Amino acid sequence: MDDHPKLEEGLGSGTSKDDEGRGKNVISHENEQKSVIMSNPRVATLDAFRGLTIVVMILVDDAGWAYPRIDHSPWNGCTLADLVMPFFLFIVGVSIALALKRVPNVKYAIRKIIFRTLKLLFWGILLQGGYTHGSDDLSFGVDIKKIRWFGILQRIALVYFVVALIETTTTKLRSTSLELDHFSIFTAYKWQWIGGFVAFLIYMVTIFSLYVPDWSFVVYHHHKHERLTVKCGMRGHLGPACNAVGYVDRQVWGINHLYDEPVWGRLRACTLSSPDSGPFRKNAPNWCQAPFEPEGLLSSISAIISGTIGVHYGHVLIHFKGHGERLKQWVSMALVLLIVALILHFTDAIPMNKQLYSFSYVCFTAGAAGIVFSGFYILIDVWGMRFPFLFLEWIGMNSMLVFVLAAQEIFTSFINGWYFEDPENNLVNWIMQHVFSHVSEKVGALLYVIFVEITFWAVVSGILHKLGIYWKL
């Protein structure tokens, strides 16, 4: 067995006999003579859940335009697309707990955490900073003055760094006993919960106390620019224009470095096509055209709670051997989270909002993740129904590869780069026009995503798995 902890969790993780509930799990502490060894069967649910998250991301990214109800909610609310990011963070947390269940060398583990965080930040800026322009625009390059500094991988990097660092540095402070009950598991890992509470406190205090002044931005129309002003002068606002989340990002990153096509442009106040995208109303508020970072800094601090809850699910997997004991822990916590979220949302105390990463949104999505994870665990690891979910396992084992090449359209852009005479004469458009030409545009888009994209990457991931090839960060 390796002398150092394996830190291959989250989006870029694959399979390992010593990680993520597979093979023999060892919990050990430096300068301690006592070590506890437990044997767990391979937990295939981890890969399947990660693969499901990637599949849903591809589905909503490439078919969401045809079905706005599954695309990101323009503001308050929670759709299928809004579950993707919290599901990523949830499984990152689960994997952190399993990968760091033994930390014989704390300094080495911290170096690995820092290095992996930097790799996630690098890939995030490269993929979502604006250097690649998508499958329909074969040009490349980014103006440094407008580069997008924060995105999906950067948020994952921040959550991973904080949660993994707490898990590593508190290894000497927690008990090695595996005989924990329903309540003692919370006290045994109190520092993880304290970290999540501190993140929650920072977020809540900032979002309700920070004063948001008026702000302005520039829009470009036919080589002309116009400066528009948004009137604010308030604090504690949870609407699109004057919230603290947007204000923090404008101050930290600069308004030119934010995402310039936010989903709030699909609100009824902005367009008659709501919840679909469309031309702005003539009397639409100025903020409808303004940039906003959906993976912003302040909302990423709130997202640490999602990772913390995932870590708790991983701890349950480590300390409870029986299926029933694990499911009792997971399902009860998920139900509590869902109830809290629904009460907060439907009383308008704190609406669910992915853009703000509100507390009700954290609770609802973490609860949903817990229910789905528990359901997968019953089907795959308890009942042994593994075959129907093999394609999800394969994708989950190579999730970073599929994320980069499929979800970020790198492979599609490569295919579109080979055309005949006109860029529109490419293989992707030919498939759309000839294979799915006998159905409606919406149905054709859905069938293309299912049978061309998801099926293709499931086959590729399966082949790579058979060859033992995994791309990990």
TrEMBL record:
<feature type="domain" description="Heparan-alpha-glucosaminide N-acetyltransferase catalytic">
    <location>
        <begin position="42"/>
        <end position="168"/>
    </location>
</feature>
<feature type="region of interest" description="Disordered">
    <location>
        <begin position="1"/>
        <end position="26"/>
    </location>
</feature>
<dbReference type="InterPro" id="IPR012429">
    <property type="entry name" value="HGSNAT_cat"/>
</dbReference>
<feature type="transmembrane region" description="Helical">
    <location>
        <begin position="297"/>
        <end position="318"/>
    </location>
</feature>
<feature type="transmembrane region" description="Helical">
    <location>
        <begin position="80"/>
        <end position="101"/>
    </location>
</feature>
<feature type="transmembrane region" description="Helical">
    <location>
        <begin position="330"/>
        <end position="347"/>
    </location>
</feature>
<keyword id="KW-0812">Transmembrane</keyword>
<keyword id="KW-0472">Membrane</keyword>
<dbReference type="Pfam" id="PF07786">
    <property type="entry name" value="HGSNAT_cat"/>
</dbReference>
<feature type="transmembrane region" description="Helical">
    <location>
        <begin position="401"/>
        <end position="420"/>
    </location>
</feature>
<keyword id="KW-1133">Transmembrane helix</keyword>
<feature type="transmembrane region" description="Helical">
    <location>
        <begin position="445"/>
        <end position="464"/>
    </location>
</feature>
<feature type="compositionally biased region" description="Basic and acidic residues">
    <location>
        <begin position="16"/>
        <end position="26"/>
    </location>
</feature>
<feature type="transmembrane region" description="Helical">
    <location>
        <begin position="191"/>
        <end position="212"/>
    </location>
</feature>
<feature type="transmembrane region" description="Helical">
    <location>
        <begin position="359"/>
        <end position="380"/>
    </location>
</feature>
<feature type="transmembrane region" description="Helical">
    <location>
        <begin position="152"/>
        <end position="170"/>
    </location>
</feature>
<feature type="transmembrane region" description="Helical">
    <location>
        <begin position="113"/>
        <end position="132"/>
    </location>
</feature>
<protein>
    <recommendedName>
        <fullName>Heparan-alpha-glucosaminide N-acetyltransferase catalytic domain-containing protein</fullName>
    </recommendedName>
</protein>
